[in-house]
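Practice problem 4.
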């Protein structure tokens, strides 16, 4: 049986939107294909009539400063995100996450938009973007709209995009004084696959206090969301052993860790998340010191 009938390669956003609207159903967007084509091939996804390949659409490419924000096109391969000096400068957690996705071959085709749209609760790129307060730019025949990352998720591998919508890209705040981010994860030693656990942290340091903080952890439930209780436990506090312990406890309260047959037990995740949280917070804290000493535009 054919897993698709028609494969379209539009060269502009308007052509892609027209193809999504006018092609015989079922129609799906494809970018790198590292999630979708595998699922079609393995029978985990019902055959589709039309695949609309968005990987060559100029409006969905580019990594640049735009209107005082960092813009990253949804069709950018994660290898380019990992190698970008701008991403390293303003969104180091995303730089680190992108450099860990898959192996080199996967990173050269897998896109950031595909990582977000596939809606896996431990998707490395999406977890980093959530801690970095990224806003998704979404295009449809009705125009464009903006949506915070967590609002894109409905359930495991289920996003909230309408059938005629595509992710154009992501807009991230630029790094300010004392601000820094970090990403940490644990993997099964024997392979390239989705993380057992990942943690992304962004913070703003003022002197010896954490003035503000954002934390995302995957997989901590069916959908990606911020760990707001741990954030509340740390905001305005110093990075002490006691506060790290309180943040870990708050994560255990809010997160819904579960045992997955092939990856890890709930108890393992509950324990290891404390270690990853400590490492990510400490790395961001130290980077925040360098950044506040050197002022805006610094790099460690
Ligand atoms: C060997 C291997 C290792 C991997 N390792 C990791 C890993 O370490 N960490 C990790 O997070 N992931 C990993 N993945 C998963 C995968 O590579 C990533 O999620 C990747 O970023 C998906 O991007 P893609 O462009 O290939 O998506 P595709 O497979 O093309 O699409 C995935 C989904 O997103 C939708 N989509 C794609 N682009 C858009 C868009 N612009 N707008 C709207 N919808 C869109 C598609 O319709 C589809 O539903 C791995 C996969 C493989 C095969």
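Answer key:
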């Amino acid at each position: 049986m054919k897993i698709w009938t028609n494969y379209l390669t539009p060269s502009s956003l308007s052509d892609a939107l027209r193809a999504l609207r006018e092609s015989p159903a079922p129609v799906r967007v494809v970018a790198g294909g590292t999630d979708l084509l595998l699922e079609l091939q393995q029978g985990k996804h019902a055959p589709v009539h039309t695949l609309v390949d968005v990987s060559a659409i100029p409006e969905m490419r580019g990594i640049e400063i735009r209107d005082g924000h960092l813009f990253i096109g949804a069709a950018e391969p994660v290898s380019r995100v990992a190698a970008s000096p701008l991403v390293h400068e303003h969104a180091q957690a995303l730089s680190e996450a992108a450099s860990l996705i898959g192996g080199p071959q996967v990173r050269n085709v897998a896109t950031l938009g595909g990582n977000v749209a596939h809606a896996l609760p431990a998707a490395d790129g999406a977890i980093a973007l959530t801690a970095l307060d990224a806003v998704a730019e979404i295009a449809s025949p009705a125009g464009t709209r903006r949506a915070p990352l967590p609002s894109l998720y409905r359930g495991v591998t289920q996003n909230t995009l309408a059938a005629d919508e595509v992710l154009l890209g992501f807009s991230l705040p630029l790094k300010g004084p004392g601000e820094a981010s970090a990403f940490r994860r644990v993997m099964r030693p024997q392979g390239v696959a989705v993380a057992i656990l990942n943690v992304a942290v962004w913070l703003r340091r003022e002197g010896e206090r954490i003035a503000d903080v954002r934390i995302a952890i995957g997989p901590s439930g069916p959908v990606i969301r911020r760990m707001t209780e741990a954030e509340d436990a740390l905001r305005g506090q110093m990075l002490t052993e006691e506060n790290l312990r309180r943040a870990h406890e708050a994560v255990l309260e809010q997160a819904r860790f579960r045992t997955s047959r092939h990856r890890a037990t709930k108890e393992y995740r509950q324990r290891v998340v404390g270690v990853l949280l400590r490492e990510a917070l400490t790395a961001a804290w130290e980077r925040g010191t360098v950044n506040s000493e050197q002022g805006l535009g610094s790099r460690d």
